[in-house]
């Protein structure tokens, strides 16, 4: 499970694809600031900024550590002593853009970049007062670029999947009546961590947090929450209002085990169900229904299919089973998607939701999570992650789909 | 360790202090957006926005979960169906500000709010085109407000300190030669988690991540990193370039154990040193020097003392000991502070650094971390968290300061 660093060519080809997108849109460059984007484009997550011109070579301007960046980065590294120096460096390296007095359009990740830093960087780009050069939103361009994964990236997601499967199997062997959600989760997390989980699940959305995942039993799993997912969980209190609580796991309750694992920066996302004893018949039937939706989604997951049509098909199946009101949350607390891209972050594109009309492409990696919520009783469902291939969906999740029964 | 929720009065008094600050500055209101600010001001971390007018009552506009917010929030909760509806709601609730056509100044947390969301909210505040109302930066006002902790907050930090001390003692009992940094950290993290650690260490700075803390042995601890701290650690690879690595812990190496724990939203931050066998004399002497700096810092930690003078005194002590070049990192990789505020986030104010001239006040909680870096050999140092009282520093960290020796 040790990291095999990808060839530097991999990063250069990502930059190349970004440059094609810049030129297609008539933009002059991309200024990447988020640590995840820096890693994606250069192979190094050191502190600084990457500038990618629409034509020519990218440069990684590094505050610290310069040594590490030089050892890791596929693109040229330049020390960045201060923000003030930044414009001078850009003028030197890109005279045709920054020293020519022309009006240029530079994109950046406005969906994650704090407004304060954005304002400072926009001034750097605008340069002398009077210039009409702009720093504007390129979030979607970068998110689109990252949708399609390379063989290296898929390999890392599979490594995370293997670690998650092992950690889950190990922890389930210790699951017993009277254990708290927290204690069960702690056991899973220990297994993930010793297998190389980096200790974080990175998310893109503002205020979104994932604490390794969400584990919940019975009514606690079914509580509505701020989390933008079908089951947020009760949490440990108002300042940690999602995932596990100190609730004791009882007999006959659905135990939803939605866990992530991040290996070498790449995440897997999966959900399995367990029960001590047996599930009530109607919940067992709903679980089977979630598996049926998964099978149909797999069948539809072909290049060219619009993402949203997978969600639409799942809605129809849920309706046919008489479970519409329970699908992906209950009533007003339903969320409006079936799945989401995963990669360096847990909330990547595409989203399997209305409005995502882009066709699926080979290399997209998608977590599909049909779930049914029964207020006061629990959540049942399943989640697998897949890579889209020319031949259809290839499953990356490695845990058995069987309901885990503890006697 | 179960949460005793503070009286709603606590949150109302925070809002009251914020309103005083708004009026003193001539601003008309504060629009809080970050989940941590929402919790700080209302007692609920559900998704939405809090509007605090300079005069009058605050309202928590909630997207989800409305039920949870209503159960938890000290201020009135209003459902927020969409961003489009937001201005209408504000006009209804604050006609003197939003329906009167006057130019108003509203503050928000531009240090954390993404530029994309900021732009949308600024349009909401500006309202009809032509209005000159502005949404501008109030980050510093909120950070200042949060510097001084209540008895409830200090109690939660002490609960986190107790959990950290227990988890560390438990894990140290299993420390042995040949263990990897990762395995040792996983053991500590398990102990933290079963005691109620929420599974996250929240940070405010863009791109800053903390994976429970930083544990490093020998040369791995001393490697420069992107992390804005005296010791970032080697990490698990380029996409997780800080904290633990898979390096095996050897005999005679300084083991730096810088861990955090978050209970009910509040963090403790502490560092202890361990060694298998014994430390080389010069490193042992440097460790004693870090403890000496801690004692002097405690002595200086009195209300009225400017934060920066604690840093200046530590620099002098390090110089007197001939250790200037090793203090808080080595050479060009030194960081320029001695400590930092902690609370709901790990990187709060005040910072013990040049330029932080504000006097210490009772209720401030500060992590002090004098450390010495020896490239290729390791990092030695200590970190305690304190609350400033009228009588001086009161230590919150509960672990023994003795060098932990494993034979």
UniProtKB/TrEMBL annotation, chains A, B:
InterPro entries: Creatin/AminoP/Spt16_N, Creatinase/aminopeptidase-like, Creatinase_N, Pept_M24, Pept_M24_MAP, Peptidase_M24B
Residues covered by the Creatinase N-terminal domain: 14-148
Domain Peptidase M24, chain residue ranges per copy: 156-390
Protein name (Swiss-Prot/TrEMBL): M24 family metallopeptidase
Organism: Paenibacillus mendelii
